[in-house]
């Protein structure tokens, strides 16, 4: 059984879908703790499912490195097999990525390498793209530049706003995330192989 620590910054809709999937005895992963860089609304899901939480506010530390050290210490207490960034909006300092990669994955609301960064959906609309997508990647020290584990195209529809497009992207993101974690847990995806190929 794969042990997961999930990190969030907001409402945690992907987290909720993952927690629901993990309720099944047939799903080969379990969330052991949920962390955030602020008091996140998504902690409500943790409470509903009886999952422990931790918060490491960025503003409580003098710099990114000391904040990162504390996040890493909190994660390591749970001895996870995989760390999942699910709407976690803050970049980690190098020492955190080096300590956890390749066993740290992230979802992104675009078909990478298209539209990396914090505003993938907005950027796709601004570019007049006819399609965008969702991706699941290994976290590296770049911005959404790690090895791609899964991705899927999503059409941009006439009249789409950032909200309507993002809502459709999220549906695919959740499915890809749940499927990717399943494949990591069962050995269908070898993270070490993905990062050394």
Structure description:
- The structure is a single chain.
- The protein is α/β, with parallel strands linked by helices and 197 residues long.
- The chain folds into 2 domains: 1-100, 3-Layer(aba) Sandwich (Rossmann fold); 109-197, 3-Layer(aba) Sandwich (Rossmann fold).
- Helices cover 39% and strands 22% of the residues.
- The chain is built from 7 helices and 7 strands, in the order βαβαβαβαβαββαα.
- Strands 3-2-1-4-5-6-7 form a 7-stranded mixed sheet, with helices on both faces.
- Strand 1 (2-8), helix 1 and strand 2 form a beta-alpha-beta unit.
- Helix 1 (13-22) runs parallel beside helix 6 and helix 3 packs parallel to helix 4.
- The mean pLDDT is 95.
- The record marks 144 as: Raises pKa of active site His.
- Pfam families: Formyl_trans_N (PF00551).
- GO terms for molecular function: phosphoribosylglycinamide formyltransferase activity.
- Keywords: Purine biosynthesis, Transferase.
- One of its GO terms (cellular component) is cytosol.
């Amino acid at each position: 059984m794969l042990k997961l620590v999930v990190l969030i910054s907001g409402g945690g809709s992907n987290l909720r879908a993952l927690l629901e999937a993990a309720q099944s005895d047939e799903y080969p992963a379990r969330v052991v703790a949920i962390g955030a860089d602020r008091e996140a609304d998504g902690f409500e899901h943790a409470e509903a499912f009886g999952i422990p939480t931790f918060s490491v506010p960025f503003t409580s530390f003098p710099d990114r490195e000391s904040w990162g050290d504390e996040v890493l210490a909190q994660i390591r207490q749970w001895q996870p097999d995989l760390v999942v960034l699910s709407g976690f909006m803050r970049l980690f300092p190098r020492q955190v990525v080096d300590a956890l990669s390749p066993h740290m994955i992230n979802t992104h609301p675009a078909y990478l390498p298209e539209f990396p960064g914090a505003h993938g959906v907005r950027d796709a609309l601004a570019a007049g793209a006819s399609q965008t997508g969702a991706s699941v990647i290994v976290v590296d020290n770049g911005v959404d530049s790690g090895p791609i584990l899964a991705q899927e195209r999503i059409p941009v529809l006439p009249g789409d706003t950032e909200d309507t497009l993002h809502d459709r992207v999220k549906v695919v993101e959740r499915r890809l995330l749940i499927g990717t974690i399943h494949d990591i847990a069962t050995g269908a995806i070898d993270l070490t192989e993905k990062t050394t190929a």
